[in-house]
């Protein structure tokens, strides 16, 4: 599974509608409204790199009001949930 973090600049007056449109796309697991340089951050999860082209420039960038995207592909995922699961292996609850 490939995870991409997509930073998105939008028309400021349409952030909620654009976020909902992005969140409704296949392969988009979450969309966050954020402060800072970008308006939204979308988490995209796909099976292979070619699928990123279908989702990001193929669908996200074509949503009316999306002005620009900046994509970061994750090498690994680290989370508290993953660490707890790793240390719990073989231990009785």
UniProtKB/TrEMBL annotation:
Gene3D superfamilies: 3.30.70.920. PANTHER family: LEUCINE-RESPONSIVE REGULATORY PROTEIN, TRANSCRIPTIONAL REGULATOR AZLB. It comes from Streptomyces jeddahensis. GO terms for cellular component: cytosol. One of its GO terms (molecular function) is sequence-specific DNA binding. One of its GO terms (biological process) is response to amino acid. Pfam families: AsnC_trans_reg. Residues 6-77 form the Transcription regulator AsnC/Lrp ligand binding domain. It comes from the Bacteria. InterPro entries: Dimeric_a/b-barrel, Tscrpt_reg_AsnC/Lrp_C. This is Leucine-responsive transcriptional regulator.
């Amino acid at each position: 599974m490939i995870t991409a973090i997509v930073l998105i600049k939008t028309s400021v007056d349409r952030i909620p509608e654009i976020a909902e449109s992005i969140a409704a796309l296949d392969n988009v697991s979450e969309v966050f409204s954020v402060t800072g340089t970008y308006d939204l951050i979308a988490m995209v999860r796909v099976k292979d790199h070619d699928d990123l082209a279908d989702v990001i420039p193929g669908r996200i960038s074509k949503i009316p009001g999306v002005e620009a995207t900046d994509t970061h592909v994750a090498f690994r995922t680290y989370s508290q949930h993953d660490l707890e699961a790793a240390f719990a292996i073989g231990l009785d609850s």
